[in-house]
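Mods, move this if it's the wrong board.
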Amino acid sequence: MLTLIGKNIALRALEPEDLDFLFQIENNEEFWEVSNTQAPFSKFVLKKYLENSHRDIYEVKQLRLVICNKKGGSLGLIDVFDFDPKNRHAGIGIVIGKKENRGKGYGKEALELLCDYCFSHLNLHQVYANISEENKKSQHLFEDLGFEKIGLKKEWNLVGGNFKNEFLYQLINNVH
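Not the wrong board. C-alpha cells:
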C-alpha cells in the first residue's frame, strides 16, 4: 500500500506552483492562532521557502505536504514538525484551507496517511499535536484516530490579549 495515497486524497511535496495557495493559507488570519503567526508573509519569503522545501526532513526537522483531492486540487496542508529521530517522535499540524472542504473527511484521511507515513517510513514511535481548548473539531478529529489527550497547558497562547489553554494529544505506535 502506498502511504501517501488514500481513497479520496493524496499527500504530495510542495511545488513552485503552490506559491499562491501557500500565500492564501499563510496569510489567512483565521489560521494564525494555530500556527503562532504574528504577521503576514510576503510572496518573496514564501517563494524562498518553496525553493528550500526539498531539503531532507533529517536536516531541517520538518516536512510540509499538500493535501490534494483526486483531481489534484489543493485542499490544505499537513506538517511534521519538531522531528526528533533520536527519540523517535514529532509533532503534527493540519489545516484545510476553504470552509467548504471541511467536514468531508479529507482531514481525517490526510492525518491517517501522515501517521502511517511517520510510523512506517520515518520509524517514529509517537506523534503529538497541540490543540486549542476551544478547537473542538480538531480535538474530535485527533481523538477519532486514537490520539489521547494527555495534558493541558494552562494559559499557553496569548490570542487577542487573552491567554488560552492548549491540550497536548499523543499517539503512540505500539507496533515495534
